[in-house]
Write a structure and sequence with these properties.
- Two copies of one chain form a homodimer.
- The first copy, chain A, is α+β, with helices and mostly antiparallel strands.
- The two termini of chain A are 25 Å apart.
- Chain A is globular and about 70 Å long.
- In chain A, strand 3 and strand 4 form a beta hairpin.
- Chain A is built from 14 helices and 38 strands.
- At the A-B interface, helix 7, helix 8, helix 11, strand 32 and strand 35 of A face helix 7, helix 8, helix 11, strand 31 and strand 34 of B.
Chain lengths: 663, 663
């Protein structure tokens, strides 16, 4: 059952479909909740055993109790556990407890700041507050978590489906500058016989960080090079930034000015913000004509053979605005020649440290939305969604028959119809290894099925053992990309000592592609989840609710990866008997049936353990150098009290759009 | 056996005693090691099962493999897992493996930068490198880890012993400004019947952050107030900073200038650095006369009834130097009116963000050490040690019969003879809850027995459940202090909902004081450890080496606290049968014998679980409002296959120095 309650006068965000496939009932209150329209809040007392899931890409565990989360899309590379906001706002939570018959979901459709105080102020109290007091609130009730997720998708739409090659291994690094750099990556993987489907182009491929340009000095024959890679079934995936460089003679800039496509300040002047190229304008993605214009700009790269993109810096990230920078330089003057003590020293350094992503800057500009002028901060969390919608809709027009890879850093619910997400600038931390697992079910719940974290970690230095464990942990994660920040230790797999062992993990990934692709498609088409917390399946098992480092992936597999350094195994909780598959390589593995209960399971470095559920089947294929080269004739099936016939395998050409996808 | 090898021409640090109680043999090499005197390095191949313990106060687990640690004392409040340096340099490691008969220790006595590459560059290679190439290296070999620790203490000296009240509960916060603020803390704990032994005075008690002053506006009758608290057996513990404010008429400053006691630059001018009060000079703690002078300054506070101190900012922390600040203001000019792009924007912001603790500033000044002028960076890691030695030696002269509480933020081996340490500015993070447990054995190994982390976390906002779990985890930690940073959520226990439940945990702490005090004294007097990794006891049990979230405390207790949010229990590894004690309150507990193996053990919020070892005894006493008021007639004993007579209890008046302390 879906109920709807409205605070104030919310804008139409597009998160909810114009024609949902389930009925929505307007109501005057929600049973069990205290609603206070005057301060835009709703709250509820939680039983001790009640768990709160959801919120997509946030810090902390799968159970979100014990913190305040604030939806306010932010470019913050330090995903510490005390952060309240990351890049995304996915305002959907799900409440479940082992002793409750009913599961409940809440979606707050408000693109401004929304606070979720989940047992922070009071241990057993949940309070959700819309800062503006304008929000559409949807309440879902059903007898299972899976059903709540289906209801939610029925009103917000089916998830984006990428091409099949997007499930292969990808290599990325901010720092590849030239065609030769990229070719080296390709060749070193090829020479080591490590499968690879894609190489990512970070900001340096552009000419001075200008969208829809290619640096012709470092990529003198770009389309030839794209073609050269494509012949080996390797796809190049360029980044697209939200800000458009201010530069005379740069077409996108000049056209945008001419057609009045950029966001403006109250006084009618275009906002001058800055990111990589320095001064930029932001397209007003709230206008349909701007969406159409910007989206069709991707044509420039499609024409050169590109078939995948990642949208970045679209919170939008702001290094500074010209107005604020001027103020800061003026204020700095005051501190010259002073004795800077505790107050004045921090006041001075804060001037500079708060230049980036300053809240005041997000109040300096306006959007035009359905005829209304709206100050940016009130609709802030839609910006990345609308940029990606712009791309997604235009790509559908330009390539009506071909799936194009598209994912984004910033997001809002609704964007899941147009693209996936990656979880932004994580770090080479063991805690982020675990976090990357915990974020997946939360993202899936919110509709974002095509997702993944930067394997090995983006910031900080990766160690060989962390890389090995991360590749194993993410072995079933749809977006399977090794990515790192400029200035960090090189972390392509061939930079480490045990390349052979890494190859075996990547080969296992490719051996699992038939399962990954089948299960992803089922989740997408049936409005289900690909990653699930254990408690979504064993909903009466109170121990299952405690488990924060194991997930179920698809119908057959439970993952319980090693997430701590210097460990040769881990304890695992089995809600029921499962078959432990321990892989040293895709074709070198052992099978062992374990009873329900708590087990210490050995898992040495470079080994991958999977738990096959009873009554289920895992298909395995002989690996190939790319997903395109997989030979489905080589399929075999691992079973635990099941028959290969019990498994519904899905496959297709890997790129055609609009297949029937029925099961 | 203790061997000694020398690189270059190291200075005499005082870490090793002039008269060690064990022989040290000079050698030409260390068996099994590759020594390269030309680049100041020694290295060794590690078997896969070899563990490396030690390094005192560092990030990451008890087993230090898989990272580079750099000894370079640094005031860094972000103890993320990729940090290489924190406040302390404790260059002692211990190597052990289940299949090895011999345990090995290495101590690098070099007060400059030392790198420990423990399987970072190569998974199975340990390389230690003295940057300056001047170091005394000591190698220890024995048949047990405990024996290595005893050998190490035999040459570096016995650990500092605090007064008994220092084991009671302490409350602290940067933000208590007045006598009234402090009285409120006292009264609110008293009114709630929560035991309390101490309240800490952070920087605001001073007059404009000047050492050895008291702000007479906010503390108009300081000594009366100290006396008022002392009557209730509550001790006030003021902070002492390393920097001396430059201010005409301020005695310490004027005297220091007059007597030439402050550090100077190459040109002979006194270095102008800045911390809380703005511009300061640093005492040259390397000169014996300065140590004596500064140490005797504590008299000002002793005279007012104070009997405990914490030395802070003694890495030394530097907000900026006057010289660097001037350069920065000049360089900032260049960026005015420019289009700040990726290069120039980061160059500009880095100018300001690198002002604090800038490596170049540590090369701007000199110390006089045994007649030599030495540039600070070459002996950097001794600064906090010598400040605390100054205090410790003077306090011994001024109070020859009374133990005075003294601990420090910065440290180096040798300082453990003069005071304890706290682990600096941690955060209200669950990962730091675990870290605080992992740091204890490492600190103990290095001689720092009196230690602890800020309970509830210093930076970031503490939640009620984190506070509860932290108080339980630290239930046996010598320094048991709740401390928080200005600007964070208030975290005195009475700020939360379940004060009654908190009281029960604190009462349990007091019930355990006889055990804590006895075991601490045994460790101190016998040159042993109070906190030990499991593998130090079960040295042939390979599972015991994997355990990173359990420790043995004293002879009787294994701790296995809950370290994850939203968990009602945890899995515990028992190397042998133990008795599980589950406390809801000091006098409300259950006992259950568990066999060796892996168990899921319930432990709900506000419960504390302890594991009593077989053949051992745990004394328990009726709690009192302060440690001074404990009635030892109320002692009782919990036993597992043991008799109360099997336990050696230690007690004394709690403050007399130089007791025989024999067992």
């Amino acid at each position: 059952m879906i109920q709807h309650y409205r605070f104030g006068h919310p804008i139409h965000t597009g998160a909810v479909l114009d024609k949902p496939t389930m009925d929505i009932t307007p109501v005057k209150d929600f049973p069990g909740w205290d609603i206070s329209p005057s301060n835009g809040s709703l709250s509820k007392t939680l039983s001790e055993s009640m768990r709160v899931f959801g919120l997509g890409e946030t810090v902390r565990g799968m159970n979100k109790r014990g913190w305040i989360y604030i939806s306010n899309n932010t470019d913050d590379p330090n995903h510490d556990e005390d952060k309240r906001s990351l890049y995304a706002s996915q305002n959907f939570i799900l409440l479940a407890a082992p002793e409750e018959e009913e599961v409940e979901g809440i979606f707050v459709d408000d693109p401004g700041t929304v606070r979720f105080d989940i047992g922070y102020t009071e241990l057993n109290r949940l309070t959700i507050c819309s800062e503006s007091g304008n929000a559409d609130i949807y309440r879902f009730t059903a007898d299972s978590a899976d059903e709540i997720v289906r209801q939610f998708r029925a009103i917000t739409g089916q998830s984006y489906i990428p091409p099949k090659w997007a499930f292969g291994f990808g290599q990325s690094r901010w720092g590849y500058k030239t065609e030769e750099d990229i070719r080296t990556v390709y060749e070193r993987y090829r020479d080591a016989s490590v499968p690879l489907d894609s190489i990512y182009l970070d900001i340096d491929y552009m000419e001075r960080y200008k969208d829809f340009t290619v640096n012709t000095e470092s990529f003198p024959h770009f389309s030839d090079f794209v073609e050269e890679m494509r012949k080996s079934h390797v796809h190049l995936v360029p980044i697209i930034d939200a800000g458009v460089k201010m530069e005379e003679g740069y077409e996108t800039y000049e056209e945008g000015c001419e057609k009045d496509y950029f966001v403006k300040k109250e006084n009618g002047e275009r906002l001058v913000a800055a990111v990589w190229p320095g001064r930029v304008h932001f397209p007003d993605f709230f206008k349909p004509e701007v969406q159409n214009w910007f989206g069709h700009k991707y044509q420039f790269l499609l024409e050169q053979g590109i078939d995948g993109f990642w949208n970045d810096m679209n919170e939008p990230a702001i290094f500074y605005t010209e107005d604020r920078l001027k103020e800061v330089f003026e204020e700095i003057e005051k501190y010259k020649n002073e004795n800077l003590d505790i107050q004045s020293y921090f006041a001075f350094t804060n001037l500079v440290s708060t230049l980036g992503n300053n809240p005041a800057d997000y109040r300096r500009f306006y959007h035009e939305h359905e005829g209304q002028s709206i100050r940016h901060d009130k609709v802030h969390n839609l910006f990345g969604f609308y940029m990606t919608k712009a791309a997604g809709e235009a790509l559908r027009k330009m390539e009506p028959n071909k799936r194009i890879l598209l994912f984004s850093r910033s997001s809002y619910i609704g964007m899941h119809r147009y693209g996936g997400v990656w979880t932004g600038d994580n770090k080479s931390w063991w805690s982020h290894l675990l976090l990357s697992l915990q974020q997946m079910p939360a993202l899936n719940m919110c509709g974002f099925l095509y997702s993944g974290s930067d394997i090995g970690g983006f910031g900080a230095d990766c160690t060989e053992d962390l890389m090995a464990r991360w590749l194993s942990l993410a072995i079933l994660t749809p977006l399977y990309r090794n990515h790192a920040c400029a200035g960090t230790r090189l972390q392509e797999l061939y930079q480490f000592q045990n390349l052979e062992s890494f190859r075996k993990i990547i080969e296992l990934r490719y051996a699992l592609i038939p399962y990954i692709y089948s299960e992803f498609m089922k989740a997408a088409v049936k409005n289900g989840m690909y990653f699930r917390p254990l408690s979504f399946i064993w909903s009466k098992d109170s121990r299952a609710y405690e488990v924060e480092d194991q997930v179920v992936v698809g119908e057959s597999i439970m993952l319980a990866p090693v997430v701590e350094q210097n460990h040769n195994g881990r304890t695992v909780y089995l809600p029921e008997s499962m078959k432990l598959l321990r892989f040293k390589a895709w074709n070198d593995y052992t099978e062992e049936i374990l009873p329900a209960g708590t087990h210490y399971v050995e898992c040495r470095l470079f080994e991958t353990i999977l738990f096959l559920r009873k009554g289920h089947v895992l298909p395995l294929i002989k690996p190939a150098k790319t997903t395109a080269e997989l030979d489905y004739a080589s399929l075999k099936f691992l079973c635990y009290d099941a028959d290969p016939k019990d498994y519904t395998l899905y496959n297709d050409d890997g790129f055609t759009r609009n297949l029937p996808f029925t099961f």
